[in-house]
Amino acid sequence: VPLHVYFDEERLVYIINKTQLKCVIARKERIGLFIDILPKCPSVKVLIQLDDEPKDKGKDEEIHSHFQQH
Predict the structure, then answer these.
(1) Contact 34/16 with Cβ under 8 angstroms?
(2) Helix, strand or coil for residue 55?
(3) Which end of the chain is more exposed for a tag (fewer CB within 10 A), N or C?
(4) Are strands 23-27 and 63-67 parallel, antiparallel or unpaired?
(5) Measured between alpha carbons, how far apart are the two ends of the chain, in Å?
(6) Which residue, 60, 22, 24, 19, is CA-closest to 43?
(7) 35-44 b/e (C-beta count within 10 Å ≥ 16 → b)
(8) Are 40 and 22 a contacting pair, CB within 8 Å?
(9) How far apart are the C-alpha atoms of 8 and 65, rounded to whole Å?
(10) What is the pLDDT confidence band of residue 52, given thresholds at 50, 70 and 90?
(11) In whole angstroms, how far apart are CA 5 and each of 8, 33, 34, 56?
């Protein structure tokens, strides 16, 4: 489910809960918002952060996972 970058917190929570998303993938600059709303989104089990620029030009984007604790 695509989530528009300009959606506010309330709209993001509504869409995530309505669609029962299990995983959210976001760029580094938006990850804080998703971390903040995780307690309101019980279906989300994995949050993946994409870095804007690879640390090593020979690799694809670095991926960091944040797992919601239950």
Answers:
(1) no
(2) coil
(3) C
(4) unpaired
(5) 23
(6) 22
(7) eebbeebeeb
(8) no
(9) 23
(10) low
(11) 8, 11, 11, 27
CA 3 from centre of chain: 10
Q: In what side-by-side order are the strands of the sheet with 63-67? A: 23-27, 46-50, 63-67
- What is the C-alpha separation between 39 and 2, in angstroms, rounded? 20
Query: Cβ(38)–Cβ(44) under 8 Å?
Result: yes
Q: Which tokens belong to 61? A: 């984007």
Biggest CA–CA distance in the chain, Å, is: 39
Global confidence as pTM = 0.70
